[in-house]
Fold:
Amino acid sequence: MAHERLPLNRFAGTGWTQIPKRLVNYLNENKVQYEILHQPKDWSTQKPRRGDARYYTKVTIVRAGHQHVVAVLPPNSRIDLKRFAEVGEPVRLETEEEFKWLFPDCAVEAIPPFGNLYGLPTFVDNILVKNDYIIFPAGTDTDQIKMSYHTYEGIVQPRIGSFTVKVDSRIPE
Structure:
């Protein structure tokens, strides 16, 4: 059967199992060093170790005018839409139903912070710029990628700004 080699469809409720080829190819073509961190199936219920927490990122999809935007922020933050509106367009958070089709090779809760791979602008909160490295979702329910922040910024070329509000003070900046 032709579909046997395809990854499981996250939208069918079976879980996404393969890191998107476009992400791995992009990293390899740019000759960057990165490390794939494979986590146990139940990793999302575990908290990152306190010292590592500030290096993790999360991705939120924002609608700015008529455009989808990838926003990358620390895990202890949420987007301040008033600050984010400084992009010059009316903004709002997108629902999963509104954006999941944009990332057909990713689990919705594991979108990597590479809007450029999906034809979308990427914005990074300036708190992350301070990090030596970042750890981000790799498109699956069980994988993350660790790489130098400087390298990430060099290949993605995101817009950087201050657009988050800290919501969990237990995670240091």
